[in-house]
Write a structure and sequence with these properties.
The structure is a single chain. By secondary structure, the protein is α+β, with helices and mostly antiparallel strands. It has one domain (8-207): Protein of unknown function DUF1054 (BirA Bifunctional Protein, domain 2). Helix content is 41%, strand content 17%. Strand 5 (132-134) and strand 6 form a beta hairpin. The longest helix is centred in the first third of the chain and has 31 residues, at 19-49.
């Protein structure tokens, strides 16, 4: 079975008014694609890492009024949940697709992970210049890694170490009209290649989590 990619209609889901209506579209339109792509990527990461990895698809269960502005799938070593651990994401806002290595605010060992990354900034120097860094998974904002110098990166990681609610995500953004998105297999290969480039950071994080 060929893998399905994403079209403009998938990004347009985030223009649907109402929690129930938008959630129904996410569940019927986007989540089946997450399941397909996610199963493949989870298996690929398990092979690369040499241990079991598990797919988690965002349920948005806590939302009672406001419809989600984005949705995502995550891959993690823990079958029970991903938020407390270093993990990988793939997801959509209305104006871009994101592919992340993510440390979000629920991770209890962010401080020790940040300290380890601060001692090994070379892990970031090999990343392509089209990679971006975000400091909040709930916001669209991201800065190209090519626009950050060593001091900027240090400041981001010091914040991750010292601020309880701080987050750190690094990866890639793709625009809705990017041809890569149309073909699921091409998108999987691009995402896998992105994850492979992030593996040294993930592995360093796991050693200290």
């Amino acid at each position: 079975m060929s893998l399905k990619g994403f079209t403009q209609a998938d990004f347009d889901v985030f223009t649907i008014d109402g929690l129930e209506e938008r959630m129904k579209a996410i569940q019927t339109q986007i989540q089946p694609t997450f399941k397909q792509l996610g199963d493949t990527l989870t298996n690929d990461l398990a092979i690369l890492l040499g241990n079991e990895m598990y797919l988690h698809i965002a349920k948005h269960a806590r939302r009672k009024v406001n419809p989600p502005k984005d949705t995502w799938m995550a891959v993690c070593h823990d079958k029970r949940g991903y938020k407390k651990h270093p993990h990988f994401q793939l997801g959509l806002f209305d104006d871009h697709l994101f592919i992340w290595f993510a440390l979000i605010y629920e991770a209890p060992n962010k401080s020790s992970i940040a300290s380890a990354l601060l001692e090994d900034l070379d892990l970031f120097s090999t990343l392509p210049t089209d990679f971006v860094i975000s400091l909040d998974h709930m916001k669209k904002d991201a800065t190209a890694i090519g626009d950050k110098n060593a001091d900027d990166l240090k400041a981001d990681l010091v914040r991750l170490r010292d601020v309880k609610k701080a987050e750190f995500l690094v990866g890639r953004h793709l625009k809705p009209n990017d041809p890569l998105l149309k073909d699921g297999q091409t998108l999987v290969e691009f995402t896998k290649e992105t994850y492979e480039q992030l593996l040294p950071i993930y592995q360093k994080a796991m050693q200290h989590s």
